Write a sequence for this structure.
């Protein structure tokens, strides 16, 4: 029985949001938010809450239902168990939401050097690779170190047309055919795509490949709790039941209609007021845990792609959206924090603090006669890291800099599921408050269309001539 099923344990693992560092009682009236401002926002939050709940019940926002999709577990878990010990490597082909969620899960929940462990030490589970780019140097290097005869490849693209992913797929199909033969491709390839349409779905039918679906209405940046993220997680031994249980627990909290009891609503409200009433449109996610660093990477896409929009819901040009930034404590205390501390008052820093580390280390009691370092002996690295977080938070607060803390009791599947769901639900609220559609991505589509044109896709000839004309005329500006 997984530990997350114990009610007492679940209660002890609740993620919480400390926002004292956002308020005028800590920052002063000039830079802090007041209780009056939060109260004034409540009517709009009520409208947003009703709109989102209506969209949810009508099936328009299916990401809300992902924690409860037992069918996903029923499909994935037996497959992952049967494959244990069969493959040495599991390769995820995807980009954006089809890659960042996978990376987030593996970085947080697997051994930090999972791929470097001997097979027995990783429980017979495969090494995990997510080459989320089409950089030829990186792809070539990856192919140098994996044995394709012992590799399972999961290609992920909802549309089946994503240029980067399909280029990777074409490369791996070619290399796998040479390594194992065309008739054995189905033993090494798994497709995750639209349930009915698209080139990848057609190819999967032609080649007889195993398939999983990206649910209708779930965009890439909201898809980590579907087969998009859960398949590779299960193959590597991650407790995907715990992930969904954590997300479901957070969902119950986020169903509450009062801001003080709903962490997602509260997070969105604080960020909205900071952005639109105080001009603090740079939102820094700063985990004091290397395991959660790629959660900050995943959040960057979620926040930027959802909230950065040219048009509002009324079709008016607004060019709105905060800029998400990732930082790592304590590393970036020595690179970015100088700017956060003394630069423009345009930032909100959200710390991720882990209260208990799985494998803490005691600092040896050496050099006691050296006053500058002797005091460290006998204390732990976990205590030092959390002292660094608390000190940075205190210094920011003292300097009138907005900050909040997402407190994580420990890093495990249950708490990570909570964090993922909280931030997804907060994004939905933030979109409603800003009056924009948080679930489309027209700017991304424009870039995709330009890529299609430059790579010679049929139907994009006029677009290609237009782009090449601009590129030729811009040469006079080259240095």
């Amino acid at each position: 029985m997984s530990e997350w099923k114990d009610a007492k344990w679940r209660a002890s693992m609740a993620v919480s949001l400390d926002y004292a560092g956002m308020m005028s009682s800590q920052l002063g009236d000039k830079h802090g938010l007041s209780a009056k401002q939060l109260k004034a926002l409540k009517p709009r939050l009520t409208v947003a809450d009703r709109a989102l709940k209506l969209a949810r019940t009508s099936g328009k926002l299916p990401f809300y239902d992902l924690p409860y999709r037992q069918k996903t577990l029923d499909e994935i878990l037996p497959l992952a168990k049967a494959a244990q010990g069969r493959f040495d490597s599991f390769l995820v082909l995807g980009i954006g939401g089809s890659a960042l969620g996978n990376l987030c899960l593996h970085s947080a929940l697997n051994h930090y050097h999972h791929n470097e462990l001997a097979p027995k030490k990783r429980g017979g589970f495969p090494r995990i690779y997510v080459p989320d780019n089409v950089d030829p140097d990186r792809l070539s290097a990856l192919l140098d170190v994996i044995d394709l005869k012992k590799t399972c490849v999961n290609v992920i693209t909802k549309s089946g047309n994503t240029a980067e992913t399909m280029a990777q797929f074409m490369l791996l199909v070619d290399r796998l055919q040479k390594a194992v033969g065309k008739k054995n491709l189905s033993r090494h390839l798994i497709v995750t795509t639209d349930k009915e349409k698209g080139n990848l779905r057609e190819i999967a039918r032609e080649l007889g490949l195993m398939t999983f679906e990206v649910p209708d209405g779930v965009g890439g940046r909201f898809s980590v709790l579907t087969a998009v993220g859960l398949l590779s997680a299960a193959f590597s031994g991650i407790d995907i039941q715990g992930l969904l249980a954590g997300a479901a627990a957070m969902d119950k909290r986020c169903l509450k209609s009062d801001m003080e009891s709903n962490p997602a609503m509260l997070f969105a409200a604080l960020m909205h007021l900071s952005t639109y009433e105080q001009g603090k449109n740079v939102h820094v996610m700063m985990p004091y845990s290397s395991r959660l660093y790629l959660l900050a990477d995943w959040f960057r896409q979620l926040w930027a792609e959802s909230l950065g929009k040219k048009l509002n819901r009324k079709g008016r040009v607004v060019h709105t959206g905060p800029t998400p930034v990732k930082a790592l404590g304590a590393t970036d205390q020595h690179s970015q924090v100088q700017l956060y501390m003394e630069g423009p008052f345009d930032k909100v820093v959200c710390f991720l603090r882990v209260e208990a580390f799985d494998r803490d280390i005691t600092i040896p009691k050496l050099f006691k006669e050296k006053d500058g370092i002797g005091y460290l002996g006998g204390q732990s690295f976990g205590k030092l890291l959390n002292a660094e977080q608390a000190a940075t938070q205190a210094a920011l607060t003292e300097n009138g800099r907005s900050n909040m803390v997402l407190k994580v009791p420990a890093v495990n599947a249950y708490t990570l599921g909570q964090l993922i769901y909280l931030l997804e639900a907060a994004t939905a609220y933030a979109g409603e408050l800003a009056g924009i559609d948080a679930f489309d991505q027209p700017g991304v589509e424009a870039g995709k269309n330009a890529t299609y044109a430059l790579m010679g896709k049929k139907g994009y000839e006029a677009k290609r001539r237009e782009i090449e004309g601009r590129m030729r005329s811009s040469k006079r500006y080259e240095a």
Observations:
- Residues 312 and 435 are 6 Å apart (CA to CA).
- The radius of gyration is 24 Å.
- The first helix runs from residue 7 to 12.
- The chain has 17 helices and twelve strands.
